[in-house]
Write a structure and sequence with these properties.
Length: 193
């Protein structure tokens, strides 16, 4: 039953649509009607508010972290389930017809909750790739792969399977970005396209 409770906890926490809620509260309207239609921080940035996007990023990260930390306390044998469910909840929130974000920031929080060295590797790769290439999708996909490698290399083998599943999910959700990358049409951060 711990796996069921941890899954429900992770999903419910992960499915809080901070991007939608904060954008509406800031008078930016329904974030699902602009850009990619995602509720994540990258799409919130398209409203023109860096502060709002940063707040969404931090809150999406925090919910992944909160779900995992709660699981460590109440369901320590089912932390992997809470981690996966938090990302799934963000990507497929029941409140929004199962259409949410792409899971990058929430997975960052999950990684910090699983083990801070994994979270650190995730964050360093994410920020470094973003700074060098200025393409959010590439940074996010690089970070999820880095988390798997870091977990395997740093003695967190128990969490490698769930991090692989999350990485595959995040990459699959970026399939339209991958098509644009291959066509040379993926916009960079700050561009007007």
């Amino acid at each position: 039953m711990h796996w069921v409770f941890a899954g429900l906890l992770g999903y419910l926490v992960g499915s809080i649509p901070f991007g939608l809620l904060l954008a509406k509260a800031a008078g930016k309207g329904d974030i699902r009607q602009i850009g990619s239609g995602s509720t994540g921080a990258t799409n919130v940035l398209r409203t023109g508010s860096k502060r709002l996007a940063a707040a969404v990023l931090l809150l999406d990260l925090a919910k992944g972290l909160a779900a995992v930390l709660a699981a460590w306390r109440w369901f320590p044998d089912a932390v992997s389930m809470a981690a996966l469910a938090a990302v799934v909840g963000h990507c497929f929130p029941i409140w929004l017809g199962f259409k949410g974000g792409k899971g990058v920031a929430t997975n960052a929080g999950v990684c910090f909750g699983v083990g801070w060295p994994i979270g650190l590797a995730y964050g360093v790769v994410w920020l470094a790739v973003l700074a060098l290439g200025r393409i959010s999708s590439v940074a996010g996909m690089s970070a999820v792969v880095a988390a798997v490698i870091a977990a395997a290399a740093l003695g967190y083998g128990r969490f490698v399977p769930v991090l692989v599943v999350i990485a595959l999910l995040v990459i699959w959700l970026h399939r339209s970005n991958i098509k644009r990358l291959l066509a040379g049409e993926e916009p960079k951060l700050g561009s007007k396209s």
